[in-house]
């Protein structure tokens, strides 16, 4: 097996595993750019995965090939509404945002597992039969060398995630909405004096983070795990949070970090097909994403300055 063949295995797999992390990390960028810490990304992914799989299993016969797309949209809406719990606690009630996020994680997992037990009589759902199909991007997949590596044998949501990162960059840095979003995360009192409704902007940001995390969870469950159980989302939300920090709260940086973590996750699946990894014990490949996450956050990214008002509830009239 030559070097190009190895890349043909690694790169599509890395993009495939990175897609849920990209969606969720971009959601985290919205929330934290507005000044609200969102540790609950893991729980929001759990809700998205649960809703996506249940919708898929329930309506696959009626909607056919449209099912995974509709499941993704429903998961987006439900996770966005679920994130309101975090928004109300953090913004309106001024609760500790880290504690609120942890509560969201526990509530999401407990509630979804309880509903799975009620609906299916066991600890996990049935296997999803209708999922996303692999495609070759027209024209681009024919480009020599680059085409087979990046634009062949991939899933549409993976490409949507990458395009979305550039759209989010434009929205946050080139639009009035993005300017208001960043202002309430940096100096909410100054934003307030300019007539910006700080609470409303933060509510919108948290709900967007819920929507994108819900999409990430739905994609992960539909493409990768193919069912829902207690172990379907096992740290991916925290990896997305790490990707956001690794990317210094920047959409394109978060996407790059998510691709890096996606590559690490893919090693546990494709490692046995790569000659120089074939003899590495599988357990080492399984823990590689988490080890790399820790290493990335403890000295390999330089100084990462969070939004100045991150984690601080805003009380009108108080500095």
Main sheet: strands, sense, barrel: 2 strands, antiparallel
Distance between the termini: 62 Å
Mean pLDDT: 89
- Find the count of extended strands (DSSP E, 2+ residues): 2
Q: Which class best fits the helix and strand makeup?
A: mainly alpha
InterPro entries: ABC_transp_permease
Protein name: Nucleoside ABC transporter membrane protein
Transmembrane segments: 6-29, 36-57, 69-91, 98-120, 154-173, 203-222, 283-302
Membrane topology: Multi-pass membrane protein
Word description of this protein:
This protein has 319 residues and is mostly helical. The protein has a single domain, classed as ABC transporter involved in vitamin B12 uptake, BtuC (Orthogonal Bundle). It contains twelve helices and two strands. A two-stranded antiparallel ribbon has the order 1-2. The radius of gyration is 20 Å and the shape is globular. It starts with a helix and ends in a 22-residue tail after the last helix. The model has no long low-confidence stretch (mean pLDDT 89).
Layout of helices and strands:
Elements: H1 3-33, H2 41-63, H3 67-92, H4 97-120, E1 134-135, H5 146-150, E2 154-155, H6 156-174, H7 176-186, H8 188-193, H9 198-225, H10 236-246, H11 251-270, H12 282-297
Antiparallel strand pairs: 1-2
Helix pairs in contact: 1-6, 1-9, 1-10, 1-11, 2-3, 2-4, 2-9, 2-10, 3-4, 3-9, 6-7, 6-11, 10-11, 10-12, 11-12
Which properties best describe this structure?
319 residues; mainly alpha; ABC transporter involved in vitamin B12 uptake, BtuC; 2 strands; 69% helix; 1% strand; globular
